[in-house]
Specification:
The model is unreliable at 1-51 (pLDDT under 50). This protein has a six-stranded mixed beta sheet, sandwiched between helices. Strands 1-2 form a two-stranded antiparallel sheet. A two-stranded antiparallel ribbon has the order 3-6. The longest helix has 36 residues, at 305-340. A hairpin with a 5-residue loop joins strand 15 (346-352) and strand 16. The protein is α/β, with parallel strands linked by helices. 44% of the residues lie in helices and 16% in strands. Helix 1 (55-83) runs antiparallel to helix 4 and helix 9 (305-340) runs antiparallel to helix 11 (399-406).
């Protein structure tokens, strides 16, 4: 059984006679999903809107619970200060409680409540204020006492925020129902938006409203089509939707978008605007204004100037240290390579680095001497495709070579390439000149930085990756480089090597 909203097919039970949406009709939410190659597979199970609450009511309940807990903490602190004979300090709990109540009242929806990081930032601000107050009254001992009191408040608030995430606590408050979202987009971007949110957001996508005319499709990427842009506000109100996700490149009227913003503000729901800009992390985005317009500035991705020199210097020191520590192991591997098969210990191959320049990459030899000549006859067995050649059971690999590859020991001589400035410790996979000849504009982005001894490709499956996946991962690294990303990759590399993840 199904009905229609604005001439659109709607999931069974959503429409009541004589009304746009019946408040007691079942909506759809995401059930536990399983990962797929690209994103999570979305599955939906029926839910009644009355089992949830409106965004405004959820915010009100969280406010009341938080103020109650903070007031109890302030009372405990006050009693403790009185018992300790620090009556002059009882103003601290009062000021702290007043400041936190103001912060809670400024929040317009649940997402603005913040988390642990926001709470700690506020405590740091309070601490700086306490220090300034101590300097002004020339009482550093007062500042020290205030800092200790604020430390207690910070611990209590962080504990509360963590406890608030527990399902049992949320059920006690009455906000156990998960947040829900409605996507507003055209046909070409609706499915893309659903898949992008899968696995990266705890919000349940309950439906899609299409902006480009009537559509009688039952669903988009597993999400039901609930109507058009004319039905958005009614759906938000009837189904207790917490967030409306709008694709900016969809053909939407500016006046409609402004009115939607006003309506959602009255309902306590959040408006989220999504751009087509992809593969760019939020840290590179700066929001500013230009007249009455909102401007998104995108910072350069690659390290430049002092940051690039500092990265190169740190990698040189680390490579030198690792090379010195690995010399005994390198000697053992070299002897094993020499005894296993005839030929040189080191394998030298021309690779392409940043700026389309070439260099000679060093590796411990893991193949027989005629490996290059035999590649043509094995081309049909390529398991990767594209410009990259990989075989899980490559007959050209020697016995010792298989062991070296399993533990990535054949790549240790590349530490010399790092010390010579030809490679980085972390970066895209070094490319062959024959591969580069097949690059399009997108793949050429990999050559914007130095190739790495390890990288996102190393910790994301390595040889199991297809050519397209390998390129996408390298571009992800180039476009979103940061020191913290390098540290994470380095730690993940240790795990990948230890468990021989994707190596052959």
């Amino acid at each position: 059984m199904s009905g229609e909203v604005g001439d659109f097919p709607v999931h069974a039970g959503l429409v009541a006679e004589g009304s746009v949406i019946e408040s007691a009709s079942p909506a759809l939410i995401r059930a536990p999903s399983r990962p797929s190659a690209r994103s999570n597979v979305l599955q939906f199970a029926a839910r009644h809107p009355e089992s949830g609450i409106s965004p405004l009511e959820a915010l009100r309940r969280v406010r009341i619970a938080s103020i109650t807990v903070m007031a109890a903490v302030a009372v405990v602190a006050t009693v403790g200060l009185v018992v300790a004979g620090l009556r002059m300090m009882i103003l601290a709990p009062v000021c702290w409680l007043a400041a936190e109540i103001v912060v809670l009242q400024l929040c317009r929806h649940l997402d603005e409540m913040g988390g642990v990081a926001d709470a700690l930032r506020r405590q740091v601000l309070y601490g700086m204020t306490a220090c300034v107050a101590g300097v002004l009254i020339q009482r550093p001992d007062v500042s020290l006492k205030l800092l200790l009191i604020l430390g207690f408040f910070a611990s209590a608030e962080v504990t509360w925020l963590l406890v608030l995430r527990l399902p049992r606590v949320r059920r006690t408050i009455g906000i156990a129902s998960p947040s829900s979202a409605l996507i507003v987009a055209d046909r070409s971007t609706a499915a893309e938006t659903v898949e992008d949110r899968a696995g990266v957001s705890s919000t349940n996508v309950v439906g899609v409203c299409l902006v480009d005319g009537h559509d009688r499709e039952a669903s988009v990427a597993g999400v039901p089509v609930l109507g058009t842009v004319d039905d958005v506000v009614a759906l938000v109100q009837s189904l207790n939707i917490h967030e409306v996700v709008v694709r900016l490149e969809s053909p939407l009227d500016q006046e409609w978008l402004s009115e939607l913003q006003w309506s959602l503000e009255e309902l306590g729901a959040r408006l989220t605007l999504v751009t087509r800009l992809r593969n760019t992390r939020s840290g590179r985005i700066k929001v500013s204004g230009m007249g009455s317009s909102i401007v998104l500035g995108v910072a350069h991705a690659r390290p430049t100037g002092l940051a690039r020199r500092a990265k190169a210097a740190a990698e040189f020191v680390l490579a030198l240290t690792l090379f010195a520590l690995s010399l005994p192991l390198l000697a053992v591997c070299a002897v094993a390579v020499r005894l296993d098969s005839p030929g040189p210990v080191l394998f030298r191959q021309t690779r392409v680095r940043d700026g389309d320049r070439t260099f000679t990459m060093l590796k411990l030899r893991t193949m027989h001497l005629d490996a290059e000549e035999r590649r043509a006859e094995l081309e049909e067995s390529n398991e990767v495709g594209g410009a990259l050649f990989k075989m899980k059971a490559d007959p050209r690999v020697t016995r010792v070579g298989r062991v070296l590859r399993k533990f990535s020991l054949d790549e240790l001589p590349q530490l010399l390439n790092v010390m010579r400035g030809e490679m980085a410790l972390i970066g895209p996979r070094p490319a062959l000149p024959s591969e580069v000849e097949m690059y399009d504009r997108r793949a050429s982005r990999r050559l914007s930085v130095k190739p790495g001894l390890t990288g996102l490709w190393q910790v994301s499956g390595r040889s199991r990756l297809s050519w397209e996946e390998s390129v996408a991962i390298d571009i992800e690294y180039v476009d979103n480089w940061s020191p913290s990303l390098d540290v994470r990759i380095a730690l993940e590399t240790v795990r990948a090597v230890a468990f021989k993840d994707g190596a052959y």
